[in-house]
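Field notebook, page 389. I keep forgetting to write these up properly, so this time I am using the form the group agreed on. The chain and the ligand, magnesium ion, are recorded exactly as supplied. Prediction of the bound pose follows.
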Amino acid sequence: MEKVVLQDSMNDFALQLHARERQWLASYAMQSSESAGRHYREPPHAYRGPFQRDRDRILHCTAFRRLAGKMQVFTDDMGSYHRTRLTHTFEVASIARTISRVLQLNEDLVEALALMHDIGHPPYGHCGEDVLDECLQPHGRFSHNGFALTIVQQLEQRAAPYPGLNLTIEVLGGQQLRDEKEVGQVPVSPLLEVQVVDAADSIAYDAHDTDDALQLGLISMSDLQGLAIVERARQHLTDSPPTLTPRDRPALIHALIDLQVTDLLQHAFGTLQPWQRQDRHALAAAGVRLEHSPTVAQEREALEDFLFHRVYRHPRLQAVRHSAGGRLEELFDGLTKAPDRLPLRFRRRSDSFGIAAAVVEYLAGMTDRFCDRQFAALRSQSGPLADWS
Ligand code: MG
């Protein structure tokens, strides 16, 4: 099928949605009726707008469900309190919708972007990503943001005569910018909806990684008390206890999210004030950015620095990283040397993209446990390994 960009035509519902968004959304929000469309033409839906359809396609795709079996920071065997990649995604979507609603941006677009943002994460968190990236060199690079696009444009299958989910240009473009940002190129100022999801992502993980690390005993309340943002959050607690105890953890995490969202919104009101009657193109041309106030930005940086050294590099997690990384490396080596052990779908992809890229795609789509099982099968059985879809 020829790949062209076509806009959905307007039906009665689209006209109603257009009128509603004109009334409720800010002038610089992305209007659903102004979507650049999809690569493959589709008739408009009777009662769902284009970004709502994108959100639903992402929510119902198999890669989204696999997020439940992918670790965020902490592994399965460390308990059941902490976040998975799936629950992280829902926290991001919730925070992003809150910010979007206050700023009168397009919530459907924000939700679609948020639900998609980590869909390309490989097994074993950032360790898995680092290992797969090393495996691909010198043939290319692996990033979870880029792999998300491969999933939604090529690997997912719907009941449709084209590959992938056929998402709107805006959702694909937002994810593309995340990928480019990762390698330091951001040629244009992203839509505000894209920036909201980025901000919500970091607010969510800063808070929930702190929460999970406390609950797992990797850090203590007293470790946190030197951090300015924690002191700011402490002052928000009922009666502002002079010393934080483990019982204050839920209230502290709530305050951490709340104060970051509030700061982002207050700063955004000032930034957006001069642009009240302008459209999104004017803001993009001027490079308008949604950011935290300089003080809170600095305090967040200190928290992230603390999390990096004290949590993400904690000996318990380093041991997990080491053994998980070894399993992925062995799977990569074994499958590139014996391509007949790849599932048929990925053997076919290796004809077009090369064996290294096909093996990395196969490994990147796995959940943590599925990867463990294929590692055991590689060593103990013959024949092709199982496909994950
Ligand atoms: Mg994320």
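OBSERVATIONS:
- The chain has 18 helices and no strands.
- The mean pLDDT is 93.
FOLLOW-UP: compare against the apo run.
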